[in-house]
Amino acid sequence: MGYFVRNIHVFVFALVSILSAVWVANNPHRTVRLIRPLVEDAVELQDLAQGAYDEVRQVSWNRAAGEVVTLYVSTLRMPTMLFERLADRIGDVERQMKRRQRVDAASDPDMPRPALVVSGTQFKGRWQTGTSIRPPKT
User: Fold this and answer.
1) In angstroms, how far is CA 19 from the centroid of its own chain?
2) How far is it, in rounded angstroms, from Cα 104 to Cα 58?
């Protein structure tokens, strides 16, 4: 009895696997109809993830670490400067991304690229209404 209780997860997995194999064998068309949307979503997620992997691969981690240290030091000195520096940095990133998109579009016009919008307007001294981002309470 101790062997059965200790390995119950193996028996449950085997039972579920066998039952699902029998169900798929008896209902192949229904299985294809149910699984097709999942496969299409997985392919779309893979395409989106590939773009994210490409962006992460192009990041200069030494420069990013230096920027984090600079932000931390400036936050310790004057906390309100954090939002000003973030707004400036987001503006820089936005310009770089637009420039990179223009270069990519010029190099391969047949390949559609998903648009990624980054906006730094919420850090420009006034906060947008209707957003989940709220100013810190001072």
Assistant:
1) 36
2) 14
Give the model confidence (pLDDT) of 13-42 as tens digits.
999 999 999 999 999 999 999 999 999 999
Q: Count other Cβ atoms within 10 Å, centred on residue 81.
A: 13
Q: Say what the pTM is.
A: 0.37
CA distance 34 to 30: 6
Alpha carbon separation from 135 to 1, 72, 129 (Å, rounded): 62, 18, 11
**What tokens appear for 10 in the block?**
């193996």
The 3-state secondary structure of the chain reads: CHHHHHCHHHHHHHHHHHHHHHHHHHCHHHHHHHHHHHHHHHHHHHHHHHHHHHHHHCCCHHHHHHHHHHHHHHHHHCCCHHHHHHHHHHHHHHHHHHHHHHHHHHHCCCCCCCCCCCCCHHHCCCCCCCCCCCCCCC
% of the chain residues with pLDDT over 70 = 75
CA–CA gap between residue 109 and residue 52 (Å, rounded): 20
